[in-house]
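We now fix the convention by which a protein and its fold are recorded. The integers have meaning only within a learned vocabulary of local backbone shapes. A complete example follows; check for yourself that the lines match position by position.
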Amino acid sequence: MQAPPMYSSVHYEGKRLYEIAREGKVVKREEREIEIFSLEQTSPIHIENNCATFKFRTTVSKGTYIRTLCVEIGKRLGYPALMKQLVRIRSGHFSLENAYSLEDVSIGNYQLIPMVQALDDLYSYEVNETQKKEILNGKKIELPYLKQVPCLKQEVVLTYQGSLLAIYEQDHQNLYKAKRVWS
């Protein structure tokens, strides 16, 4: 279980926590369940001026705050702790090894991936011509086939003839409504 830090974008009573923190206030945050799949120390512990530093690599579930994890590791080691540096090497199916540097981008040395591929961690559904027109007009639609898909998340990528059309999300009436539409 982990509580989000005060300097985070989590909402609390209509405001983001970082806005509340900037006002000098601290509010009780609900803990959330997270999962740490791996945690590996990758450098020796160096102690200087009663300060211990080391590097580690971790793989965590969505919603995990690494800054908070650093503080927890410090508590367990008996030291105050903070995060000095963070390098995110993977987020979803995107990885640092497949990324381009700002220098590469500035000289045109990069290749964009299709949006459908960027969203391939979401369930995808190919719509027909009638549904396409409804979607482009922002209408809620029924997708009865999706009721049969086990463990379906509430968001679905809608495509037409293989191209990205929209991201829709399920509402409380089991209809799907527009979250983002591309024309």
